[in-house]
Specification:
This protein is of the alpha+beta class and 382 residues long. It has 3 domains: 165 residues, Alpha-Beta Plaits (2-Layer Sandwich), CATH 3.30.70; 58 residues, DNA polymerase, domain 1 (Orthogonal Bundle), CATH 1.10.150.20; 133 residues, DNA polymerase, Y-family, little finger domain (Dna Ligase, domain 1, 2-Layer Sandwich), CATH 3.30.1490.100. It contains 14 helices and 12 strands. A 5-stranded mixed beta sheet has the order 5-6-1-7-8. A 4-stranded antiparallel beta sheet has the order 9-12-10-11, covered by helices on one side. It is globular, with a radius of gyration of 24 Å. The structure holds magnesium ion.
Length: 382
């Protein structure tokens, strides 16, 4: 079972405009240019939505419904700047994420409960970080695939957190209106309504064949989504050629043991991200920054792996070679490059490797909880 988060900023453009000009707070604000022009509403505040406004609406129509609204052209450079800042914060939690638009992100936290705690608690933490660091409210949906996560993030807005536990997808969807399903536009909605289909259980109560026959591939997709199915893997940007994770210490560190402990945590997180992507990496780089800002980067090529132990042992070796001065360390980081997609390589695993993988996961868990040295490998002599 996979665990995907969908984080969606609440009225993102408006939130940014309100940071730039706090006087816009609590007022109907519309981004989209000249209210007498030919444009459409790019975004509107929740106060404006009370007048029936929504994004995509012709701006002249919006002006007729809400003449007292504040109409802005929008600061698109600022939106991009905030979007980038949000991505940077989220990258600190999950080295791989998919940016779906300027204000929404999919994050794969599968298997990360032991790293970050219960999923809804983690979601709350992400929300608080967005507010504390960027003053931006967001809603988060958590589900077993991207579709569920997206519908869930939209379920309670603003400031919502909706967790759909695995196995509860159909139950969650059943009574929701069909237009919450991504891909159901105005035209599709009208056609379905004409057939008496209004809520999602109206779809699931009918045979799949009906939808694929009448609507082809989009009908087929619709039926699958209504039944709680969706894409389970993220598609991060194609340019992603590396995954990195680093920690700046609150106080400089001068013990190798402490550095190894931190490195171990970083390796566990990065290995989990690899696993979630179904990727293998074959190059590991370690970054070390001394308190006087001298920065050392050392890397090593290895056999393709997603094994946290191999990643840790390799980077711990690099650490020993890099930490040569008697000066405290302020930052340690790790970066993986040269990936292959593991999905097509599954046949390479034999039974022993699969069992070894499970044992390593268990060891990983114990070490994260009790420290790296709490469990050690021994050598059995025959
Ligand atoms: Mg949004």
């Amino acid at each position: 079972m996979r665990t995907i988060f969908h984080l969606d900023m609440d009225a993102f453009f408006i939130s940014v405009e309100r940071i730039l000009n706090p006087k816009l707070e609590f007022k109907p604000v519309i981004v989209g240019g000249d209210p007498h022009g030919r444009g459409v509403v790019a975004a509107c505040s929740y106060e404006a939505r009370k007048y029936g406004l929504h994004s995509g609406m012709p701006i002249r129509t919006a002006f007729k419904l809400c003449p007292k609204g504040i109409y802005l052209h929008g600061h698109y450079d600022e939106y991009n700047r905030y979007s980038h800042a949000a991505k940077t914060i989220l990258s600190g939690y999950a080295p791989i994420l998919e940016q779906a638009s300027v204000d929404e992100f999919y994050i794969d936290f599968t298997g990360c409960e032991h790293l970050y705690g219960e999923y809804p608690t983690l979601a709350l933490k992400l929300q608080k970080e967005m507010i504390n660091k960027l003053f931006l409210p967001c809603s988060i949906g958590i589900g077993s695939n991207k579709t569920i996560a997206k519908i869930a993030s939209d379920y309670k807005k603003p400031n919502g957190i909706t967790y759909v536990p695995p196995g509860k997808e159909k139950q969650f969807l059943a009574s929701l209106p069909i237009q919450v399903i991504p891909g159901v536009g105005k035209v599709m909605l009208k056609k379905l309504n004409e057939k008496g289909i209004y809520i999602i259980s109206d779809i699931t109560n009918m045979p799949k064949d009906f939808f694929s026959t009448v609507y082809g591939k989009s009908g087929n997709d619709l039926w699958e989504k209504a039944n709680g199915n969706g894409a389970e893997y993220l598609t991060p940007s194609r340019e992603q050629k590396s995954i990195s994770h680093e920690t700046t210490f609150l106080e400089d560190v001068n013990s190798l043991h402490n550095l190894e402990e931190t490195l171990f945590g970083l390796c566990a997180k990065i290995a989990q991200s690899l696993k979630n992507m179904n990727w293998y990496a074959s190059n590991i780089a370690l970054k070390l920054r001394y308190s006087d800002f001298q920065t050392i980067i050392k890397s090593k090529s290895i056999r393709m792996t997603d094994d946290p132990l191999i990643i840790f042992n390799t980077s711990a070796g690099l650490l020993k070679n890099s930490y040569t001065r008697r000066v405290p360390i302020r930052l340690i980081g790790i970066k993986l490059t040269k990936f292959i997609i593991a999905a097509e390589q599954q046949f390479l695993f034999d039974d022993i490797q699969i069992r070894r993988g499970k044992a390593l996961d268990a060891i990983n868990l114990i070490r994260l909880k009790y420290g790296y040295k709490s469990i050690q490998f021994g050598i059995i002599k025959a």
